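Posting this for the archive.
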Amino acid sequence: MKWTSFLRTVLSRNFKPFLFKGEIKKLEFEKLKNLGLYIHIPFCKKLCSFCPYQKVLYEKELAKNYKDALIKEIKLVGESLETKKEIESLYFGGGTPSLLIDYIKEILDTLDLYFDIKNGIGIELHPNDVDEDLVKKIKELNINMISLGIQSFDTGVLNVLGRKNINYLFWACYSMYISKKDFKYLIGSDLDDMFYLELKICEILKLIKKIDGGYVLTNKGAYYYHYIEQAYTTQYIDKMWNISRNVAFPDKIKLS
């Protein structure tokens, strides 16, 4: 049995694999807490064959038309709200969102009319596009999270993907806090009651530390969390992307 399958079985209390269904349901987001917003910018300078996401080649006029349509969509949704909606975070993904960096302020100003962003604003960047001018613009926009699509440090893999070899000193930092209050709200059960044995084992192994209101990862725990998270991510991306490249909206995807 794979480690990912073992942990899924233990944590979910179920031998069945995760099953993602392509059912579209109306999201009553006004009632949701800890809500995050995602804005898709579908433009790229070059279309990567391995990427399953919605994307088109960048054209200046097409990009402007998309921005105008996006602004109208935000206003359409925002004007339907009874009050200004509090959200945790905002993320610009793609595509290559930085291609519309000069339009981001207008988008943010429109969002600010209807949404109150409490925490971070993130943006996805292509490594080849990162320069001093772009970083300055990101800072001026108060964007405080970036995601670099490096894909791999292996030259052979990058050649297969059609990417240039760019050397970065790349740090992945994990800080994880499990709130008992939030767990109770989302799941409907007490964290300590539901996962008493697992939490106790992790404490004994010094993977987590108990604090007021919940638990935090230790440095040792963060290391192993990173290892496991990468295993899940690799499996998830490999299966999801391979299926999505052929079928945009599959009926279901099984992840063991």
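The chain has two domains: 32-170, 176-256. DSSP finds nine helices and 13 strands in the chain.
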